[in-house]
Amino acid sequence: IAGITQAPTSQILAAGRRMTLRCTQDMRHNAMYWYRQDLGLGLRLIHYSNTAGTTGKGEVPDGYSVSRANTDDFPLTLASAVPSQTSVYFCASSPGGIRSNEQFFGPGTRLTVL
Amino acid sequence: AQRVTQPEKLLSVFKGAPVELKCNYSYSGSPELFWYVQYSRQRLQLLLRHISRESIKGFTADLNKGETSFHLKKPFAQEEDSAMYYCAPPRYNFNKFYFGSGTKLNVKP
């Protein structure tokens, strides 16, 4: 693994189903983030984690949950997907902790909820 | 909340023309601003940060505290510059962090 990886690359999901998007980084970065990218709205922060064991809510957290059991992994879970969660999801990490703005992004997961 | 504004959703220019992507910020203090770029179907990547005063791929960005702006400029646009560009503020407060909404640059041949 080099950098940040996300899985799956894309997914079509029926409304009401549970889905976990995976994110793994091998750079030993403390901070990690989940964004959704929507046309005309740019990037919006869903959840973040300053370090393993801690998480926080971003700008649009409703309908999503995260966990940070270790430094490398930061999965995003949709407990019961709805069509408005159709989006491209990007995971990112930051080397300098919460005050560093340089973020490294994963390739994204394109999610369609029908 | 610390906010940046990118007023243009789409900017189209011809190859060889100058390009300026606008970014304005609305907070006090010493801003540390960044530009990220996302080429088609690729991940976002850091383009440049103002504190280093660097020029990447011919792009520069000058912080103007009087106008609270951090516009991205390039004197001669190339077709390969076509991408989404995001202006980003510093991350002093996570849950109030806002990227700009992005500007799609289209460089026509």
Structure description:
Chain A has strands at residues 4-7, 10-13, 19-25, 31-38, 42-49, 56-57, 64-66, 76-78, 87-94, 104-105, 109-113. Chain A has 114 residues and is mainly β. In chain A, the strands form 2 sheets. In chain A, strands 2, 4, 5, 6, 9, 10 and 11 form a 7-stranded mixed sheet that branches. Chain A has a 4-stranded antiparallel sheet with strand order 1-3-8-7, with no helix packed on it. Chain A is globular, with a radius of gyration of 13 Å. Chain B has strands spanning 4-5, 10-14, 19-21, 24-25, 34-38, 45-49, 60-61, 72-74, 83-88, 103-108. In chain B, β5 and β6 (45-49) form a beta hairpin. With 109 residues, chain B is mainly beta. In chain B, the strands form 3 sheets. A 5-stranded mixed sheet of chain B has the order 2-10-9-5-6, with no helix packed on it. The N and C termini of chain B lie far apart (40 Å). Classes of the chains: A mainly beta (114), B mainly beta (109). At the A-B interface, β5, β6 and β9 of A face β6 of B.
Q: Structural class given helices, strands, pairing of chain A?
A: mainly beta
Helix percent band of chain A: under 10%
Strand order of the largest sheet of chain B: 2-10-9-5-6
Question: What structural category characterises the helix and strand content of chain B?
Answer: mainly beta
Q: What's the story with the biggest beta sheet of chain A?
A: 7 strands, mixed
Show unreliable segments of chain B.
none
Binned strand content of chain A: over 45%
Biggest sheet overview of chain B:
5 strands, mixed
Radius of gyration of chain A: 13 Å
Please name the defining characteristics of this protein:
heterodimer, A: 114 residues, mainly beta, seven-stranded mixed beta sheet, four-stranded antiparallel beta sheet, 11 strands, 47% strand, B: 109 residues, five-stranded mixed beta sheet, three-stranded antiparallel beta sheet, globular
